[in-house]
Write a structure and sequence with these properties.
heterodimer; A: mainly beta; seven-stranded mixed beta sheet; four-stranded antiparallel beta sheet; B: mainly beta; six-stranded mixed beta sheet
Amino acid sequence: DVKVTQSSRYLVKRTGEKVFLECVQDMDHENMFWYRQDPGLGLRLIYFSYDVKMKEKGDIPEGYSVSREKKERFSLILESASTNQTSMYLCASSGRRGNYGYTFGSGTRLTVV
Amino acid sequence: AQSVSQHNHHVILSEAASLELGCNYSYGGTVNLFWYVQYPGQHLQLLLKYFSGDPLVKGIKGFEAEFIKSKFSFNLRKPSVQWSDTAEYFCAVNAAGNTGKLIFGQGTTLQVKP
């Protein structure tokens, strides 16, 4: 069964901490994505990557950065966590043009206190 | 820039009622269209997708959607809902031939009363 695995299901961090959210896929997909999900706002794209070491900003990149050193792993970094970054974070992957669909991880619920 | 709009934010229906959830997108080129569902406490699952061909697409669990190109719409329908359809529904669009970036609507929460 193909999978997108997010390292943590729940995470609690303090304001100002540097936070790493990890995502690994086993489908040899070119594209990987980070979204945040908030009630009433749907899923908003933070960053995506279409190849190793390549990244593009999504709709809400402020306060975040990403790293993709290997094809299967895509990390989201909160440089200095703030309370307004409390949210559900979803990772996804797809083939080059997304024509064959997208696979989502189970999500990481991050609480910043 | 692409955007997706779902008109209904919260829908409440009784079992056996018919369902239609609206979705409109803004993009002038060829698109791939998706509906995802998220049941309480679970991850996103694909309900159905449209890439090309017959604009009436059938998905899992009795859902279907119709792509109307002239209206930039991809509405989700089900003739008779069940209590187990209670979930959040997301419409999403990817510009075909592009990098594969997938853009979501705001979501519609469906509550089905038994």
